[in-house]
């Protein structure tokens, strides 16, 4: 899952991004509304964690732009105000969910994952395919009942492949969904991660390489 965190409190923004990355998400961070508009014009995000009171361009205007563009991106709006009227107004603007500050990080993560499941064809909370069972919320993976320990990027790649339900996923798509914008697009990190993931999943191999196209399960 790829997430954009838009928050002008840099310490909070960086802390949220670090925490979400530990949950195997690809996260980009910006600190004002203008930068947010620039990013959403270039990258496809599953979820935008959007502070409402942003400098340069207000968070309301960023949200309106996402809605205006008809993007499948879901918006989790943050605010320091806990007033019901503010929450209602934010939802009426087009936000998909609303979370007042201060918040528990576990709740933020749960809400981001819930919104991420709504950006594509609805899928069950636990993904199962080819003897593999993947639980995004608990970050657990089992193959034929055997638990498999994966690094965050390995987990992210496997989740993308599982969510594709047998469709071929290109290396470029994996790079976009599992890594942030600071990753060199010419690196071989996708190939290396898939190789490591195959080894950990064991025999017989379940990740198939489709020459010239990508990978599928």
UniProtKB/TrEMBL annotation:
UniProt-listed CDD domains: REC_OmpR_CusR-like, trans_reg_C
Keywords annotated in UniProt: DNA-binding, Phosphoprotein
Segments forming domain OmpR/PhoB-type: 124-217
Keyword Phosphoprotein in annotation: yes
Record-listed 4-aspartylphosphate modification sites: 51
Superkingdom to which the source organism belongs: Bacteria
The keyword DNA-binding belongs to this UniProt entry's keyword annotation: yes
Boundaries of every Response regulatory domain copy: 2-116
Protein name per the record: Response regulator transcription factor
PANTHER family assigned to the protein according to its UniProt record, in alphabetical order: REGULATOR OF RPOS (PTHR48111), TRANSCRIPTIONAL REGULATORY PROTEIN CUTR (PTHR48111:SF36)
DNA-binding positions: 124-217
Organism whose genome encodes this protein: Streptomyces crystallinus
């Amino acid at each position: 899952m790829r997430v954009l965190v838009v928050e002008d409190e840099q310490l909070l923004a960086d802390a949220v991004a670090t925490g979400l990355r530990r949950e195997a998400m690809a996260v980009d961070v910006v600190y004002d509304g203008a930068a947010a508009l620039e990013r959403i014009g270039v990258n496809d995000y599953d979820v935008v964690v959007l502070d409402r009171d942003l400098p340069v361009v207000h968070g309301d205007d960023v949200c309106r732009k996402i809605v205006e563009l008809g993007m499948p991106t879901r918006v989790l709006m943050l605010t320091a105000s806990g007033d019901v009227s503010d929450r209602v107004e934010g939802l009426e603007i087009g936000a998909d969910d609303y979370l007042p500050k201060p918040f528990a990080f576990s709740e933020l993560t749960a809400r981001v994952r819930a919104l991420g499941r709504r950006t594509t064809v609805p899928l069950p909370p636990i993904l199962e395919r080819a003897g593999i069972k993947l639980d995004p919320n608990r970050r657990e993976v089992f193959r034929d009942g055997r638990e498999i320990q994966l690094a965050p990027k390995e987990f992210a790649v496997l989740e993308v492949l599982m969510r594709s339900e047998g469709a071929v996923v290109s290396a470029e798509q994996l790079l976009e969904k599992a890594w942030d914008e600071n990753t060199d697009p010419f690196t071989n990190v996708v190939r290396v991660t898939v190789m490591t993931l195959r080894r950990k999943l064991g025999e017989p191999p379940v990740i198939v390489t489709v020459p010239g196209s990508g990978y599928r399960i």
